[in-house]
Predict the 3D structure of the following.
Amino acid sequence: MRLLHISASPRGPESVSLAIAAEFLDVYRRANPGAEIGHFDLWDGTLPAFGPEATAAKMAVFGGGLPEGDAWAAAVRTFERFNAYDRYLFTVPMWNSGVPYVLKQFIDVVSQPGMVFGVDLETGYIPLLTGKKAAVVYTSSVWAPGLPPGFGEDFQAPFFDGWLRWAGVTDLADIRYHPTLTGDADLERKRALARAREVAAAF
């Protein structure tokens, strides 16, 4: 088995989502001693941009042509790095009710025709990342389930879970940490760590 940890948190040792992920990985290693574990820090400078050149190449594919250029080649390399694994652990802190922009950038880079999806003229999109599993660590400091709209809204999990399912990754588990501004952060952290151990042991 090969597991890739994809981190969208830039906070290093101050990151709760990374601490929860570390707990997950510790249990996963002990439960799967022969597994290969990789790490992709989306903030490390290796994630390519997906701008005009890459977009033109993508549209060439839709038009039945051959994509060209360095930007497209970089997107292909990023997808291949991602697709080489069959299990994923994502750390996804909430930013402005959604996900960090580097995670959206990652999605836009790898979500290419013939890689993440196909298209059928009669039925629509065809997911191509089937047979894979994902665990997602969702964290937020202000928003939490059940709070009024003044504390924000959740465009984080619906968006990211939706992308995973659209791509074909339907075997999903979530690990959540939402202490709110006045909640018991230590208790919520203990609950999140316990959930991480539970998911990792069965992953």
Strands lie at 2-7, 36-41, 87-93, 117-120, 124-127, 133-139, 171-177. The radius of gyration is 18 Å. The first strand starts at residue 2 and ends at 7. The domain at 2-202 is CATH 3.40.50.360 (Rossmann fold).
